[in-house]
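Example 3.2
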Amino acid sequence: MSSARTAPAAPTRWNGSLDAATLRSRYLDGSTSPVEVVDTVLARITARGDDHVWISRLAEDDLRARAAALAAGELGPPASLPLYGLPFAIKDNIDLTGLPTTCACPPAAWEPEQSATAVARLVAAGALPVGKTNLDQFATGLVGVRSPYGAPSSAFDPADISGGSSSGSAVAVAADLVTFALGTDTAGSGRIPAGCNNVVGLKPSPGAVPTTGVFPAVRSLDCVSVFALTVADALAVLAVLNGPDGRDPYARTAPLELPSGGRVPVAPPRFRFGVPNPLEFFGDDDVAAVYAEAVRRAEKLGGEAITVDLAPLQEVADLLYEGPWVAQRTAALEHVLTTIPDALHPVTRAIVESGRGFSAVDAYRAGDRLAALQRRTAPLWDDLDLLLVPTAGTSYTIDEVLAHPLTLNSNLGFYTNFVNLLGLAALAVPAGFTSHGRPTGVTLIGAGGHDARLAAIGAAMHAAAGLPMGATDRPLPTTGTVTWTPDPPTGHVEVAVVGAHLRGQPLNHQLIELDAHFVATTTTAAAYRLYELPDGDKPGLVRDEDAGKAIEVEVWMLAEHAIGRLLRQAARPLGFGHLELADGRFVLGYLAEPYGLTHATDITDRGGWRNHLAQRR
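Structure, written as tokens:
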């Protein structure tokens, strides 16, 4: 091997992307630091000027000091902290010590004595809080225009709404100012802004994340939500947030079963998804076309579309704002209503005051009706893996919403309002753009506790859409995200491929002919070197504990009886061995014998065969 040639190392400098997969890989290889990332974030915020995204931010010296402490290892090495160095934003109805909580109502602001449980968990995991973001006042609205701090616009068009109530959080992610952001979601506030800004909006199962330190909207329904550029990033954040704290009476008693560290479950090869009937797009044919394409995309991924009657779900939705649950908003804001009512936005005040018109009798009757509807809709999840709906049937300009504040807000909630009343999980993912360049998305809705299943299918749908991340021109990362896989079914085995057997490469047909199924793109453990073999047609992978790095691979599943045929087709010096993946599992994989690396070219720094081919071209 002494005569092996070494190719010039590809640049490994950070490309400026804030997605977690990119940042984590750059932190681990030392090519950037939290201090550089914070400086970049601060420069981007300054460049955007007064975009109405932020209500307050940490002092720049404070944020830099936190980043420097991380870089110095004061909280531990990067590998030990799941969210190491990831900048994040916090909706300003969630407490962060050192900054006031305003709920977009300055006269009612207070200085919290401690951070919300969700925020404290993120900071302990290595994440860097940047500041507090704008919102529809007291989280009342889906439009993003009901704030004395101004209306953040969509990251794509200053005339378009950002969606609400978690308006600033979604725009901060889409504009590449933070890796992720916290929002809240009672009736869609963690999903509508995601659809308006081409980002992921994860609304977990109710109670999965404690709401301790979150000012309530409808306390029995409120969820802390996550905005991110990718499903993997959102799920990594949820894994840190997940689990009760002993102080939230509405929290689930047991944590969700989730992978950690940015791992995403593998989508099942076959699944059943519901398509609502009737579909409502409020005359927006463009959004209807994007949704139809998303349905076709789901079918190509192995989904079977099943028509679902939306009527009982809409009856549940009607209970939220036309029934006594609005009185919970009134209860939360009773002090404001009685002491400083003029501080409330006129639309917010009208909504909250309407809760005074409901009696205890009304509440019991509505509770009984909800219980009946919960019983009626529960069998849906016996037949379906998920319900696939438009995130919103349409969207609007800021001027349109200001002219018709209640009607258009109601239209935006058509597919969102029933979810929390039924205890469901939801995941909004980008689906495409209208002919006018307006982003739109779809939402996957599933039974409570099935958040990981939604993430698996949602990540696959997001990747298949081929969209850039947020308002950037960067594609979704294809490496750096470890994929979590359940054990293969009986009689099957997983095989990792690194070169000519990858999808789109010349020998991929060998896997297809053996009825192999693609499982995931991931990487090896950081203990391998990759060589271009002398024929130039394929690479050779060898284990090197001292100088190895993580190399991109694909994992495929095939029947055990097919392994012999696949092995017989392997050309020397390649053979099968046990290959370690980034999550620590060992699977069968193609490895090269050392004798075959004479005169081979070391391409390890390129991270994978596809990257090498692209640079060679």
